[in-house]
Specification:
Strand content: 5-15%
Number of domains: 2
CATH topology of the largest domain: Peroxidase, domain 1
Strand order of the largest sheet: 2-1-3-4
Oligomer: single chain
Largest sheet: 4 strands, mixed
Helix content: 55-70%
Order of helices and strands: HHHHHHEHEEEH
Shape: elongated
Number of strands: 4
Low-confidence stretches: none
Length: 183
């Protein structure tokens, strides 16, 4: 089944608004993060919940056995509805969008940092501090190791790409040299 961006946005908005209205946003977000990690593993449970060959009531019973009393009731209700509407495959993206919406509301921008080697906690904080000073934004960054990189850092957020990798700098140097006339 295809993922529909409008549906993802609508589900995230509905959960966000309902959680805020109930004054339960923090609790819902904590459970949503845990649920995202569980679903991310693409377990047999995910295949069962997404499988059109299984009855909706069986899926509801399964969700009850696994999550009743352990997952925020608002989030559990959303899961039931997503199963009913055959949108449970949207769940990981809905949770991601929900977290983004809250970050946006709080003035944070989500970004990814790619490095050739794993950075220490101190290195991550240093890089975040400098990036925030440079851009004037507040970030929630995720750090990834990219074995293709020789060195340097590549940062993406929104539609912005900051690339100070060795490969990028070598390409820039090559372009400048190619622009010069050789006599």
């Amino acid at each position: 089944m295809n993922i529909e961006p409008v549906a993802v946005e609508n589900w995230a908005e509905a959960i966000h608004v309902a959680a805020k209205k109930a004054n339960q946003l923090e609790a819902v977000l904590e459970d949503a993060k845990i649920l995202r990690q569980l679903y991310e593993r693409r377990s047999k449970a995910a295949a069962f919940l997404e499988g059109p060959q299984f009855r909706t009531q069986d899926k509801h019973d399964f969700l009850n056995r696994i999550f009743r009393g352990k997952l925020h009731p608002l989030l559990l209700s959303a899961l039931y509805l997503m199963v009913d509407k055959a949108r449970i495959n949207h769940l990981p993206l809905v949770i991601d969008r929900l977290l983004e919406r809250v970050d946006e509301e709080l003035g944070f921008v989500r970004g990814k940092v790619f490095t050739a080697i794993s950075l220490s906690e101190e290195g991550c904080k240093y890089l975040q501090r400098n990036l925030e000073e440079f851009s004037g934004l507040k970030f929630h960054l995720s750090f990834c190791v990219d074995p293709e990189l020789i060195g340097g850092v590549r940062v993406t957020y929104g539609d912005v790409l900051l690339d100070t990798t060795v490969r990028s700098r070598l390409n820039d140097l090559r372009e400048r040299l190619m622009e010069r006339k050789v006599v």
